[in-house]
Amino acid sequence: MIWIGIGLIIIGVAFIGLVVFLIKPLNKLASVLNSLQKTTDKLPKTVDDVTSQTTEAIGTGIDTLHQVNSQVKHLNPIFQIVGDAGHAANQLSSKMVDAVEDMKQNTQQANDFATRKNLEGLYGALTLGFFLFQKARK
Questions:
Q1: Where are the transmembrane segments (predicted)?
Q2: Residue extents of the structural domains in the chain
Q3: Which residue of 42, 114, 127, 133 is surrounded by the most CB atoms within 10 Å?
């Protein structure tokens, strides 16, 4: 029985030493938990502030988008007119290209004819005469 009493006293002294040893870290843990409590108490207000600012920013973005859409609606006819003008210019240039190709082909046929009949000199002389006639007329 004496040995049981001595064992219990040793266990009791060890337990008291352990409690004394753990008092400082437990107090620090308590202060950390208190600081965490203060931070988390402020969190709902911070989230509300951020949410309200985000809502305002989204509202401003939506207003800006509506303004841009209305301005684009006003510009849409202008873009259509510019597109139609570009289409007309494209058709005109296409017709001019066709006319130039026809003229080139006709000129090529005349040039081939002149080369086959050995009339280059005659055409050159006629051209020179025409230019001299024009010069004399001025």
A1: 6-23
A2: 1-136
A3: 114
Give Cβ neighbours of residue 114 (< 8 Å, ≥ 6 apart). 120, 122, 123
CA atoms within 13 A on the CB side of 52: 5
Q: Cα(first)–Cα(last) distance of the chain, in Å?
A: 150
Reading the block at residue 117, the tokens are 């009949």
d(CA 7, CA 119): 139
CA separation, residue 23 to residues 19, 36, 73, 74, 111 (Å): 6, 20, 74, 76, 115
